[in-house]
Design brief:
CATH architecture: Orthogonal Bundle
CATH superfamily: Winged helix-like DNA-binding domain superfamily/Winged helix DNA-binding domain
CATH class: Mainly Alpha
Shape: elongated
Radius of gyration: 18 Å
Number of strands: 4
Strand order of the largest sheet: 1-2
Distance between the termini: 54 Å
Structural class: mainly alpha
Protein backbone atom coordinates (compact mmCIF):
# COMPACT_ATOMS: atom_id res chain seq x y z
CA UNK A 1 0.00 0.00 0.00
CA UNK A 2 1.29 3.40 -0.94
CA UNK A 3 -0.65 6.36 0.46
CA UNK A 4 -1.01 9.18 -2.05
CA UNK A 5 0.28 12.71 -1.58
CA UNK A 6 -3.33 13.88 -1.58
CA UNK A 7 -4.11 11.74 1.47
CA UNK A 8 -0.96 12.79 3.31
CA UNK A 9 -1.73 16.46 2.63
CA UNK A 10 -5.38 15.99 3.66
CA UNK A 11 -4.26 14.67 7.04
CA UNK A 12 -1.82 17.56 7.47
CA UNK A 13 -4.57 19.99 6.53
CA UNK A 14 -7.00 18.50 9.05
CA UNK A 15 -4.43 18.60 11.84
CA UNK A 16 -3.73 22.24 10.96
CA UNK A 17 -7.43 23.12 11.06
CA UNK A 18 -7.83 21.28 14.36
CA UNK A 19 -4.90 23.21 15.81
CA UNK A 20 -6.03 26.66 14.73
CA UNK A 21 -9.83 26.64 14.48
CA UNK A 22 -10.29 27.81 18.08
CA UNK A 23 -9.07 31.22 16.87
CA UNK A 24 -11.75 31.26 14.15
CA UNK A 25 -12.19 29.83 10.70
CA UNK A 26 -8.90 28.67 9.21
CA UNK A 27 -8.01 30.12 5.82
CA UNK A 28 -6.54 28.01 3.02
CA UNK A 29 -3.72 30.52 2.50
CA UNK A 30 -2.68 30.16 6.17
CA UNK A 31 -2.69 26.36 5.93
CA UNK A 32 -0.70 26.65 2.72
CA UNK A 33 1.95 28.81 4.38
CA UNK A 34 2.25 26.67 7.51
CA UNK A 35 2.20 23.31 5.73
CA UNK A 36 4.07 24.31 2.56
CA UNK A 37 1.32 22.95 0.31
CA UNK A 38 0.03 24.84 -2.72
CA UNK A 39 -3.30 26.63 -2.38
CA UNK A 40 -4.58 24.97 -5.57
CA UNK A 41 -3.85 21.50 -4.18
CA UNK A 42 -5.49 22.35 -0.84
CA UNK A 43 -8.58 23.59 -2.70
CA UNK A 44 -8.88 20.19 -4.43
CA UNK A 45 -8.51 18.38 -1.12
CA UNK A 46 -10.94 20.60 0.78
CA UNK A 47 -13.59 19.90 -1.87
CA UNK A 48 -13.36 16.18 -1.11
CA UNK A 49 -13.34 16.77 2.66
CA UNK A 50 -16.35 19.10 2.41
CA UNK A 51 -18.37 16.59 0.38
CA UNK A 52 -17.46 13.95 2.98
CA UNK A 53 -18.77 16.30 5.72
CA UNK A 54 -15.41 16.36 7.49
CA UNK A 55 -14.90 20.11 7.09
CA UNK A 56 -17.28 23.00 6.60
CA UNK A 57 -16.31 26.13 4.74
CA UNK A 58 -17.53 29.67 4.53
CA UNK A 59 -16.67 32.14 1.78
CA UNK A 60 -15.80 35.78 2.14
CA UNK A 61 -13.36 37.92 4.09
CA UNK A 62 -14.28 36.24 7.37
CA UNK A 63 -14.46 32.83 5.73
CA UNK A 64 -12.36 29.75 6.15
CA UNK A 65 -12.72 26.17 7.30
CA UNK A 66 -13.55 24.32 10.50
CA UNK A 67 -13.99 20.66 11.33
CA UNK A 68 -17.60 19.47 11.37
CA UNK A 69 -16.92 17.33 14.45
CA UNK A 70 -14.35 17.28 17.23
CA UNK A 71 -10.92 16.17 16.00
CA UNK A 72 -11.15 13.20 18.37
CA UNK A 73 -14.13 11.89 16.35
CA UNK A 74 -12.48 12.03 12.92
CA UNK A 75 -10.35 8.97 12.26
CA UNK A 76 -7.46 8.59 9.88
CA UNK A 77 -9.31 5.61 8.39
CA UNK A 78 -12.29 7.81 7.50
CA UNK A 79 -10.05 10.30 5.69
CA UNK A 80 -7.99 7.65 3.92
CA UNK A 81 -11.08 5.79 2.72
CA UNK A 82 -12.67 9.00 1.38
CA UNK A 83 -9.56 9.90 -0.59
CA UNK A 84 -7.95 6.56 -1.43
CA UNK A 85 -11.02 4.36 -1.51
CA UNK A 86 -9.24 1.61 0.42
CA UNK A 87 -5.95 0.44 1.88
CA UNK A 88 -5.50 -3.01 0.38
CA UNK A 89 -1.84 -3.92 -0.15
CA UNK A 90 -2.67 -5.90 -3.31
CA UNK A 91 -5.18 -5.24 -6.10
CA UNK A 92 -7.13 -8.48 -5.60
CA UNK A 93 -8.51 -7.27 -2.24
CA UNK A 94 -11.18 -4.57 -2.26
CA UNK A 95 -12.66 -3.43 1.07
CA UNK A 96 -11.95 -6.78 2.70
CA UNK A 97 -13.43 -8.74 -0.22
CA UNK A 98 -11.36 -10.92 -2.49
CA UNK A 99 -11.67 -10.41 -6.24
CA UNK A 100 -9.36 -13.04 -7.63
CA UNK A 101 -9.71 -16.20 -9.70
CA UNK A 102 -7.01 -17.86 -7.58
CA UNK A 103 -8.50 -17.11 -4.18
CA UNK A 104 -9.13 -20.81 -3.40
CA UNK A 105 -5.51 -21.72 -4.06
CA UNK A 106 -3.59 -18.52 -3.30
CA UNK A 107 -0.78 -19.16 -0.83
CA UNK A 108 -0.41 -15.49 0.20
CA UNK A 109 -4.03 -14.27 0.34
CA UNK A 110 -4.49 -14.71 4.12
CA UNK A 111 -1.32 -12.72 4.80
CA UNK A 112 -2.48 -9.83 2.56
CA UNK A 113 -5.86 -9.79 4.25
CA UNK A 114 -4.23 -9.70 7.71
CA UNK A 115 -2.03 -6.81 6.58
CA UNK A 116 -5.06 -4.87 5.32
CA UNK A 117 -6.91 -5.51 8.59
CA UNK A 118 -3.92 -4.43 10.70
CA UNK A 119 -3.52 -1.20 8.74
CA UNK A 120 -7.25 -0.44 9.00
CA UNK A 121 -7.23 -1.20 12.73
CA UNK A 122 -4.39 1.27 13.33
CA UNK A 123 -6.01 3.95 11.17
CA UNK A 124 -9.41 3.38 12.82
CA UNK A 125 -7.86 3.80 16.28
CA UNK A 126 -6.02 7.00 15.31
CA UNK A 127 -7.89 10.30 15.29
CA UNK A 128 -6.95 13.72 13.99
CA UNK A 129 -6.70 14.74 17.65
CA UNK A 130 -4.14 11.96 18.21
CA UNK A 131 -2.06 13.35 15.33
CA UNK A 132 -2.37 16.88 16.73
CA UNK A 133 -1.39 15.74 20.23
CA UNK A 134 1.64 13.95 18.79
CA UNK A 135 2.63 17.05 16.79
CA UNK A 136 2.26 19.22 19.89
CA UNK A 137 4.36 16.88 22.00
CA UNK A 138 7.13 17.00 19.39
CA UNK A 139 6.91 20.78 19.00
CA UNK A 140 5.90 20.46 15.35
CA UNK A 141 2.80 22.63 15.77
CA UNK A 142 2.92 25.48 18.19
CA UNK A 143 -0.49 27.07 18.31
CA UNK A 144 0.76 30.04 20.28
CA UNK A 145 3.26 30.88 17.48
CA UNK A 146 0.42 31.97 15.23
CA UNK A 147 -1.19 34.26 17.76
CA UNK A 148 -0.24 37.93 17.53
CA UNK A 149 1.82 39.33 20.35
CA UNK A 150 0.75 42.75 21.56
CA UNK A 151 3.18 44.91 23.46
CA UNK A 152 2.01 48.18 24.92
Amino acid sequence: MNVSTKTRYALRMLVDIAAFQDSGKVKIRDISARQDISIKYLEQIVTILSKADIVRGERGPQGGYVLTRPASEITVAEVVLKIEGGVAPVPCIKDGNVECDRKDRCTTLDMWMRIEKAVMDIMSETSIQDLLDDANSKGIIRIQDSMPEYII
